[in-house]
Design a protein that fits this description.
The protein has about 200 residues and is of the alpha+beta class. Helix content is about 35%, strand content about 30%.
Length: about 200
């Protein structure tokens, strides 16, 4: 009887050990599957090897500028810069010096673009240095072509004056606006898009 009891205990022990071993393998398989899924998710998130190119600037939904969302391009042949602006604007002819044009002029609001050749840091950074001397913060931005630019904003008596300045290898371009603060607040996004569209040589 003792032999029968020992045999039963031995069979039970072997069975329990077998169950534990089976569950252990099963748990490892589930872990491997989880790791594999995680790796696949990471591969899917990586996509292609190359980093995505910066998108062309777009105007976000804004009821105030819906009618101005259709843009066209002004190209300055003399200094080789260009900028996008609303088709609805009736721009003027180039200035007599050929350095740019008035993009918009109505109800006291003026928006123009101009540029020229780089003449040396002191002259090229004249507006920026003046703003700094007046205690105005200079902010940085990038065009959708990757060019670094500077943004100057000044407010006084319900009037907002802004300048977006972009430097190229040989030329620079300025988007300048002196408008009512109300107009600027309504068209802030449009100004950003215009500035980011600037292309300089």
């Amino acid at each position: 009887m003792k032999k029968s009891l020992l045999r039963s205990l031995l069979i039970l022990i072997v069975f329990l050990v077998g169950v534990q071993v089976f569950q252990s393998f099963k748990g490892d398989d589930s872990k491997d599957t989880a790791v594999q899924l995680s790796d696949n998710e990471q591969l899917a998130s990586l996509g292609s090897d190359s980093a995505p190119a910066q998108e062309h600037p777009t105007i976000k939904d804004d009821d105030n500028i819906q009618e101005e969302m259709a843009l066209t391009t002004y190209v300055n042949e003399r200094y080789g810069f260009s900028i996008e602006y609303p088709k609805a604007w009736n721009i003027q002819e180039d200035s007599p010096s050929g350095d740019g044009t008035m993009l918009y002029k109505e109800n006291g609001d003026e928006i123009r673009v101009y540029g020229g050749y780089l003449l040396g840091e002191e002259l090229d950074r004249l507006e920026i240095n003046e703003a700094i001397s007046e205690g105005i913060d200079i902010k940085s931005f990038k065009t959708y072509k990757g060019k670094e630019g500077s943004f100057i904003q000044h407010e006084a008596s319900n009037t907002t004056t802004i300048q977006y300045i972009v430097y190229g290898e040989t030329t620079h371009c300025h988007l300048y606006a002196k408008v009512s603060t109300k107009y600027y607040e309504m068209h802030r996004e449009l100004f950003r898009v215009m500035a980011e569209s600037i292309v300089v040589e």
